[in-house]
Amino acid sequence: MSQSTTIMPGGGISRRPLHLIVLADCSGSMRGEKMQALNFAIAEMLPNLAAWEQEQEMAQVLVRVVAFADVPRWHIAEPVPVGQLRWKPLQQVEGGRTNMGPAFRMVAEALSPGRLEQRALQPALLLVTDGLPTDPPGQFEAGLAALLALPAGRAAVRLAVAIGRDANSEALHDFIGDPKVPVLVADSTDQIADRLATASIALSRMSEAGVDRGALASSLLGSAGGAGRAPAGDAGIV
Amino acid sequence: MEPYAWQLATASVRGASHVAASLPNQDAVGWRGEPATAGATPLAVAVADGHGDPRHFRSERGARLAVDVACELAANLGARIAGADATGSAWLQLWVEVLPAILDGWRSAVAEDLARHPFSAEEAAGRYSGEDAVVAYGSTLLLALLVGRRLLLAQIGDGDILAVRADGVTLTPVPSDPSIHGRYTTSLCQTDALSSFRVASLDLDHEPVVMLVLATDGFGNAQTLERWYERVGADLLALTRERGLAWVERQVPVWAGRSASAGGSGDDTTLALLAVDDARP
Q: Side-chain half-sphere of A132: how many Cα atoms within 13 Å?
């Protein structure tokens, strides 16, 4: 983080924090090649994000990771500057289910009022999963509602990567909450790294000044395995 | 009490992210009146921050118009009410009553600009169906009117107004707005803009303010400390005592530039610093 060294009132300046939280599916079905591919993909994505951080003019990227199965847990609990992060592989939970609702609640807790810097850019959330949510009835919706009830949760740039076409569920579209933004689908484990790279570019670019998020999502994601659903009316951003 | 002499320094710097995105500086700053005689004659100062979203593609003009209209109407109000023997609430009432005129004046100025410069085909294609044309000019506005020993403040949208007392305590007189966060701000272009104005009135005989800072959010968003404003006020006062007001005034463009740089917020940054000329004890 660059700090002001000249005399300037206020105790120093620095770039605005951009919090990226990855929600990684570690359920039983992620065993073997999928989990290896996901770990490789995240490890590949981080230098790309660090390079973007160097190139652009406003944000410092801070990364956290939630690993979820039956229950969520913080894989990286404290925000780590992306350039300093050394990836520690995720582990699949044997027989673990794909309960997303509690993971959303865990992220909501991290984004609750007073937990982010006032000057932080809108956070970025990236959900990666190979399956449909297996939450007990109502829990997925309740968890997502808790996240979206927060100003930071609503404002967050939210993207989802589905590993396998079957994972491209209505639930992922609900998580994204923007009909212009498709789910990124990796049809094979070979494509996971490519999809995460695309997602990271989209997440970072959508945080830049003067960006038309909808147009950017269409141009970046529509040709990269994006699978959308019918668009609704335009949402206004002042 | 005799009115004080004031000094005004302003700067507006295009943000590094705007340079990278080939966007103009969408901030504006302006004033009406003579700072050196501001204690005896009204002085209006304003900054504005045109929204960066592509939906507000003429926001730099909206910000310029906002500053011009607000300063003119506020200065006119100041001339009418100078010398008034009013209570605090009466001052605030007079102040609140000028806000609808500022909004109407801004909308009229936008309409005139649009009549002279209609939307191009490219601009028109970027508009949402049925959207009010003023949305293209969307901007914040931070306004101060100094009349004798009364300081009247109004704000819509993000940015910061800091009032530094002689004892180093920094006041943020305008109430905060919880609806402003991250990418979202209130705006002159919203249909219910009047209800989003926040106002304050300070009696300088009771609150001995010696410095006033009006800043677009590029300044505060560059500051690392969470309660940066407290430190800014104390530092400004200390720097003025150590190096003199003239030095501080010369630094205003430097500070705006550092805030707007890639090491700061990267956003357009505009500062207006109004200071009592004899801030040094």
A: 6
